[in-house]
């Protein structure tokens, strides 16, 4: 495993292309042109498929199948070259699962709300791995939580609670940009026993962070502006890649809601907090306000861990021994337990009353 990781880092160093990402330190520094480019993602072409359903044939459906294959909704064994423009049962099944994961009405059709969700910028990690997803298992199993893990539930081993991270030197990142990652790591450190420190040694670091464009050696090429924004590996591989073709905002302030729908600039800290969740062992969640929700709108900022994120990460590592206890799983599960029991008692009373009513009348 260690040798493979070393090999990966060396190959990244050899093929890394000069970064083209632009970093904006505040909203007023974003040029007006960026606002006009808000809909330049290749996925926008899916919008012309609106209303399509089983039995239809249309240009672009094969590309949509590739999209669903990429995020795990169509089995990876399916050959990309063999995808046709037929809206078949395989596609309908993929859309059904996708709609369930994103809390949309399950129609199996390409309705407006489904297409709006599909075209949003998102994390490059799949929602389903090997056809399996716990992303929205909460509804199915009547659980409140929706967080998920990678298959096999990998996590950093117990003896490694102090993790280091390093940046690919060729990116020449400024201290402002590096500081964004420090803030993102600290959000996870606050609720776990984990500590994160920056290292100058790329080969000795547990986590390696780099901005790349297009194909960059791991078989997961980036796709230019918007589309996929970043991806990260499960523990203990420690690979964190961001799309160098994005325009990144490094400011701590929230972008005005007024300009939010028309900007193509992505909040770096929001994406960093999400990808660090993967690096620590979390998969995607269907809770929209959770950090581990896979999509984010251009210009949006979401950096606070939600209850779902905290409960997920504490399943893997436990709480922060120096924390104030407000975010520990134990403290929350006690309250949840009382609520669950209260619900059960109320439901039983209600069923009992219904039976009495039916017997008597
Ligand atoms: Zn993700
Ligand atoms: Zn990559």
From TrEMBL:
<keyword id="KW-0336">GPI-anchor</keyword>
<feature type="binding site" description="in inhibited form">
    <location>
        <position position="123"/>
    </location>
    <ligand>
        <name>Zn(2+) 2</name>
    </ligand>
</feature>
<feature type="binding site">
    <location>
        <position position="246"/>
    </location>
    <ligand>
        <name>Ca(2+) 3</name>
    </ligand>
</feature>
<dbReference type="InterPro" id="IPR033739">
    <property type="entry name" value="M10A_MMP"/>
</dbReference>
<feature type="binding site">
    <location>
        <position position="274"/>
    </location>
    <ligand>
        <name>Zn(2+) 2</name>
    </ligand>
</feature>
<keyword id="KW-0378">Hydrolase</keyword>
<dbReference type="GO" id="GO:0004222">
    <property type="term" value="F:metalloendopeptidase activity"/>
</dbReference>
<feature type="signal peptide">
    <location>
        <begin position="1"/>
        <end position="21"/>
    </location>
</feature>
<dbReference type="GO" id="GO:0005886">
    <property type="term" value="C:plasma membrane"/>
</dbReference>
<keyword id="KW-0325">Glycoprotein</keyword>
<dbReference type="InterPro" id="IPR021190">
    <property type="entry name" value="Pept_M10A"/>
</dbReference>
<dbReference type="Pfam" id="PF00413">
    <property type="entry name" value="Peptidase_M10"/>
</dbReference>
<dbReference type="GO" id="GO:0006508">
    <property type="term" value="P:proteolysis"/>
</dbReference>
<keyword id="KW-0479">Metal-binding</keyword>
<feature type="binding site">
    <location>
        <position position="231"/>
    </location>
    <ligand>
        <name>Zn(2+) 1</name>
    </ligand>
</feature>
<dbReference type="GO" id="GO:0031012">
    <property type="term" value="C:extracellular matrix"/>
</dbReference>
<dbReference type="InterPro" id="IPR024079">
    <property type="entry name" value="MetalloPept_cat_dom_sf"/>
</dbReference>
<keyword id="KW-0482">Metalloprotease</keyword>
<keyword id="KW-0106">Calcium</keyword>
<dbReference type="InterPro" id="IPR001818">
    <property type="entry name" value="Pept_M10_metallopeptidase"/>
</dbReference>
<keyword id="KW-0645">Protease</keyword>
<dbReference type="GO" id="GO:0030198">
    <property type="term" value="P:extracellular matrix organization"/>
</dbReference>
<dbReference type="InterPro" id="IPR036365">
    <property type="entry name" value="PGBD-like_sf"/>
</dbReference>
<keyword id="KW-0865">Zymogen</keyword>
<dbReference type="InterPro" id="IPR021158">
    <property type="entry name" value="Pept_M10A_Zn_BS"/>
</dbReference>
<feature type="binding site">
    <location>
        <position position="206"/>
    </location>
    <ligand>
        <name>Ca(2+) 2</name>
    </ligand>
</feature>
<feature type="binding site">
    <location>
        <position position="243"/>
    </location>
    <ligand>
        <name>Ca(2+) 3</name>
    </ligand>
</feature>
<keyword id="KW-0449">Lipoprotein</keyword>
<dbReference type="GO" id="GO:0098552">
    <property type="term" value="C:side of membrane"/>
</dbReference>
<feature type="binding site">
    <location>
        <position position="278"/>
    </location>
    <ligand>
        <name>Zn(2+) 2</name>
    </ligand>
</feature>
<feature type="binding site">
    <location>
        <position position="216"/>
    </location>
    <ligand>
        <name>Zn(2+) 1</name>
    </ligand>
</feature>
<keyword id="KW-0732">Signal</keyword>
<keyword id="KW-0472">Membrane</keyword>
<feature type="active site">
    <location>
        <position position="275"/>
    </location>
</feature>
<dbReference type="Pfam" id="PF01471">
    <property type="entry name" value="PG_binding_1"/>
</dbReference>
<protein>
    <recommendedName>
        <fullName>Peptidase metallopeptidase domain-containing protein</fullName>
    </recommendedName>
</protein>
<feature type="binding site">
    <location>
        <position position="218"/>
    </location>
    <ligand>
        <name>Zn(2+) 1</name>
    </ligand>
</feature>
<keyword id="KW-0862">Zinc</keyword>
<dbReference type="InterPro" id="IPR002477">
    <property type="entry name" value="Peptidoglycan-bd-like"/>
</dbReference>
<feature type="binding site">
    <location>
        <position position="223"/>
    </location>
    <ligand>
        <name>Ca(2+) 3</name>
    </ligand>
</feature>
<comment type="similarity">
    <text>Belongs to the peptidase M10A family. Matrix metalloproteinases (MMPs) subfamily.</text>
</comment>
<dbReference type="GO" id="GO:0008270">
    <property type="term" value="F:zinc ion binding"/>
</dbReference>
